[in-house]
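Weekly modeling sync, notes
Attendees: S.R. (lead), two postdocs, one rotation student

Agenda item 3: backlog of single-chain predictions. S.R. asked that every request posted to the team notebook include the full sequence so nobody has to chase files. The rotation student volunteered to paste the first one in as an example of the format we agreed on. Action items at the bottom.

Example entry:
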Amino acid sequence: GPFEQKDEPILEASAAWRAPGHNSIASDEAGDDWILYHAFHGNARVMLLDRIVYADGWPRIAGRQPSSAPQARPAMAR
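Predicted structure, as returned to the notebook:
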């Protein structure tokens, strides 16, 4: 601590994706943070990966919803 509580979630359901959760956070080779989680698309549970950005020190996911379009991939060592 000290800890602060923020009353807005960083990730919420959307029309295409419901119940996003059970997440894990990882950093890539470039030092960027990513959230790996699952969400339901119809009746299928799918694993998703989105980049975390920080605004005013708080983590954010673009649009606060699971991405539906192709995204940049994490930087990985070859």
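Discussion: group reviewed the output briefly. Strands lie at 18-27, 33-41, 44-55, 58-60.
Action items: rotation student to repeat for the remaining queue; S.R. to check formatting next week.
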